[in-house]
Design brief:
Radius of gyration: 22 Å
Largest sheet: 7 strands, mixed
Distance between the termini: 53 Å
CATH topology of the largest domain: Nucleotidyltransferase, domain 5
CATH superfamily of the largest domain: ATPase, nucleotide binding domain
Helix content: 25-40%
Strand content: 15-25%
CATH class of the largest domain: Alpha Beta
Shape: globular
Structural class: alpha/beta
């Protein structure tokens, strides 16, 4: 029996067709999405049909994992009112500040929603809509997340009387859901938009929520980070660290997170547990910048970094090239410290870039230690393909680092959820983990110590205004 998993990300749709019993991949497809920070949901549907051609029709069940936080607003007839605002659309930053203040500060949000909203969160986009497009806000009858809308379309939709559904994982990124109770906070959404709005039903993790027009079961779906955790088979004592253009660290826990400073996002996962997550703005793009600085490409930069010794002979980079989310320094810039005529080599600069990215992510990952002992790091994302990143990581994280074979883990997790819905078992099917290469090394705390010292010493340098070369 075959199941399909869909990853509807910001850039594209990926589809994996897998054996339900063990997750063996038997087919795959992809299709691009339009660029930008808003997107007509119909474009996702078109991409899903293209990516799933010859695959979805063979599946007995389908699960969708989608980009988190996006706002899809519909009228009473189920028509999309405007293009969806995506997670990376930051026009609602002022709305986020106002919403936090209206409830007395960040503590209320952390305690009730598990998160302190920023411009990515759906609740802030609802407020932006109310303030800047009041006619569209007034028409809004229902609001969904990207994966909710695709799941709804798959279920022989669209008709609002087909009971739109979501899951607790993706719902936990809206800003009007309580991960601790598993319930919506409809009054929070209503306060943001200016009137009550219909929210999807929250399905159980292994629930079959409907079927397609050709008879395939449809699972509840989830958010992309939750799908990745399910696809990786992330378990207690493990932290997943993803090095894409930005970086994330997340872990599966039994207890919800509530972090008043807003550093840790207190998400739910796709299994009934929780998924605390922290994010950095700077990760893979810093590696690309280091390659440019050393006059080479990513492969060449990796070779240069490996040719240098640990600690880059005293050079430390603070990699906040594009501001930073963790710590919250939106106007910060990069800082290079310890450069001398004796150590100013391409090798040392490359090594400092690699160590900076890993030290920043290690600091973020350490914030999750309050939820349990961290015995292993799973390193994923495009940056994990760098030989230098793989070799240096264990010495900076201080634990063994496993690098799973490259795969579409979000889509794989969605497929695993679909198989779980078919099986109806208490836990997801025990698919074998993808092969992983293990890297071990001598822990070098001095690198982390130099990084944190530089970070702390430059707090006052962060300007109140964006850098001079920032885009207007």
């Amino acid at each position: 029996m075959l199941v399909a998993g869909v990853d509807s990300s910001t850039q594209s749709t990926k589809v994996l067709l897998c054996e339900a019993g063990d997750g063996t991949i038997v087919g795959r497809g992809s299709a691009p999405h339009p660029g930008g920070t808003e997107c007509p949901p119909e474009a996702w549907w078109t991409a899903l049909q293209q990516a799933g051609e010859g695959l979805l029709s063979r599946a007995a069940a389908i699960g969708v994992a989608g980009q988190q936080h996006g706002m899809v607003v519909l009228d009473e007839d189920g028509e999309v009112i405007r293009p969806a605002l995506l997670w990376n659309d930051l026009r609602s930053a002022a709305a986020a500040s106002a919403l936090i203040a209206e409830r007395g500060g960040p503590r209320w949000w952390a305690e009730h929603t598990g998160n302190v909203p920023n411009a990515s969160f759906t609740v802030t986009k609802l407020r932006w809509l109310a303030e800047h497009e009041p006619a569209n806000a007034a028409r809004t009858f229902s609001v969904m997340l990207p994966h909710d809308w695709l799941t709804w379309r798959l279920r022989a939709g669209p008709k609002l009387d087909k009971d739109p559904v979501t899951d607790r994982g993706d719902a936990s990124g809206t800003g009007y859901f309580s991960p601790a109770t598993g319930n919506w906070l409809p009054e929070v959404a209503a306060d943001a938009l200016g009137h009550p709005v219909r929210l999807p039903r929250v399905a159980q993790p292994a629930e079959v929520v409907g079927e397609t027009g050709w008879g395939a079961a449809v699972s509840a779906g989830t958010g992309d980070n939750m799908g990745a955790a399910l696809g990786l088979g992330l378990g207690p004592g493990e932290v997943a660290v993803s090095i894409g253009p930005s970086g994330t660290a997340f872990a599966v826990t039994e207890v919800p997170a509530a972090d008043p400073p807003g550093t840790i996002a207190g998400f739910a996962d796709a299994t009934g547990r929780f998924l605390p997550l922290a994010l950095t703005v700077n990760a893979g793009l810093v590696l690309s910048a280091a390659a440019r600085l050393t006059g080479t490409d990513l492969e060449g930069m990796s070779a240069l970094a490996l040719a240098a010794g640990p600690g880059a002979r005293g050079i430390t980079l603070l990699p906040y090239l594009d501001g930073e989310r963790t710590p919250d320094r939106p106007h910060a810039t990069g800082v290079l410290r310890g450069l001398t005529t004796r150590n100013a080599t391409a090798e040392n600069l490359a090594r400092a870039g690699v160590e900076a990215v890993l030290a920043s992510l290690a600091e973020v990952a350490s914030m999750l230690a309050q939820f349990g002992e961290q015995r292993r790091v799973l390193l994923i994302g495009g940056g994990a393909r760098s030989p230098a990143v793989r070799a240096v990581a264990p010495g900076i994280f201080g634990v063994p680092v496993d690098v799973p074979d490259p795969e579409e883990y979000v889509a794989l997790g969605a497929a695993r959820q679909a198989a779980w819905a078919l099986a109806g078992t208490p836990e997801p099917p025990a698919w074998p983990r993808r092969p992983a290469a293990r890297y071990e090394g001598t822990y070098r705390p001095e690198i982390r110590e130099r990084f944190t010292a530089l970070r702390d010493a430059t707090t006052a340098w962060d300007a109140d205004d964006p850098p001079a070369d920032a885009a207007p």
